[in-house]
Amino acid sequence: MWQHERSRKATIREKTEGKIPLSNTKKTARRAARVAAVVGTALGLTLSLSASASAHSVYESDTQWHNSAGDHCLLNKSQVDDDSNVGGKFQGWAESGYNEIIPFVDCEFPRERPANHLAAGMQIWKWSVDQWVLCTRTDKTYYNTSPTFSLNVYANSPSSGMCGPGTYGVFYHAAMHSDGGWTPTFNNPLWSGYHTGLGRAGVTAGIDKMEKPAWVTDSGTVDPEKLPDSVQVVDADGNLVLDDAGQPVAVSPLLPAPEDSASADAERGSEKRNLVTRDGSVTEEVEATMVHVAETL
Asked: Which residue intervals of the chain are DSSP H helices?
């Protein structure tokens, strides 16, 4: 048994020699959480990467799709950080990967996709007293314009906060065109976890009641059985939007599905784009335009 295991490990080393695993280009939240748990135990601290009040970044990562053979996959990563912006930077990655040795496991290595084969969108949410409410969303679906394995869509908030100071999280919507169609993942977005104190905020109202959205699973994905048909909205100052009768206005929490891959060029605009190569794999970075949902009602 030991000899068999030693032989298998040697085979893995030979087949993967010179390849950079996806987990080395961006650590998955699951792996980072295990490290954090060990450190937290040793230091007597409590640390959570998916729901932290003091970390510079909160994020979650999940392999959301495999093809029928289990060797091609889509990785989604959703993140909020304040390293360079007190209002927060909101972003995510839609990444194409493959598994060479063991099928149906987390994406192991980058796999390049042609232009128009990765799609992403983003919605930014804010905690309001006792619930999560919708603040802004991308003005459209974004697609990769060049051959790349990763599509990184991001947005920087004003220093005052995207919808005023407070606590925020982001849902990152990701899909990949494969086997003649888009993966059924776009409206099963990934929740980043929440980040408090953005926009020079003081104590967030209702922070003692704060928790992840009720329709989000422990892994950060959406439970479609619990996803509400509509959610409430706040304006640019963080105030609930009310109708003429004084009742909260509600909208769908879903984004329009990606266009057919061949017609994605029509969705292009003048957004800032940048290609970054790390360890031989290309990521396309796109600065998104965020629209206050309240202004579209």
From this structure: 2-16, 22-25, 29-43
Check if the beta carbon of residue 92 is closer than 8 Å to that of residue 165: no
Q: Rounded CA gap, 194 and 205, in Å? A: 14
Neighbours of 164 (CB within 10 A): 20
Q: What pLDDT is stored for residue 236 in this prediction?
A: 96
Both tokens of 157, joined, read 């908030």
Cα separations in angstroms, 8 against 14, 16, 20, 22: 10, 12, 19, 21
Q: Look up tokens 């989000």; give the residue.
A: 216
pLDDT in tens, 163-198: 999 999 999 999 999 988 999 999 999 999 999 889
**Centroid of chain to Cα 50:** 12
Q: What is the dihedral of CA 174, 177, 180, 185, to 10 degrees?
A: -10
Closest residue by Cα to residue 76 from 258, 221, 282: 221
Model confidence band, residue 151 (pLDDT cutoffs 50, 70, 90): very high
Structure tokens at 259: 């266009």
